[in-house]
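Contributing new records

If you add data, match the layout below exactly. Sequence lines come first and carry their own label; structure lines follow with theirs. Keep one chain per record. Anything else will be rejected by the validation script.
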Amino acid sequence: MSDGRPILVLMCGLPGAGKTTLARRLERELPAVRLCPDEQLAAEGADLFDEEARADVEGRQWDRAQELLAAGTGVILENGFWGRSERDEKRLRARELGARVELRYLAVPLAELERRIAARNREPGAPVLTTAMLGEWQRLFEAPTRAELDLYDEPTP
């Protein structure tokens, strides 16, 4: 927000990539409001894998993010943003609201994701993810290209 405009940060990556860890740090440093669908789903007692519940939470969080940006407050969205069309939609709308937009893409090799997920699976209360799930999600994930990354503002140091 150094130029006076609010900032929208889109956290992009697969489970285990480090999105929440980085988002929590950015929340303090920018500062910005962090919105995490997984945390909201858990708080509401919903199944993290319920696609309808997830879509509802992500929609409500996006509505809130737009309100915050319009009021001049920075926002970090932790949705994962697996598809280009979703990233484009958020970037274009945030720009209409006068915001800077950063895409923080965390590219982590599959073997490292599997290691991190295995460690997370051992934490009490953590949702159990399998390597099969991770492999399927990797096939669905549309990684940003260099050309797409160039459409975003440079990450705040």
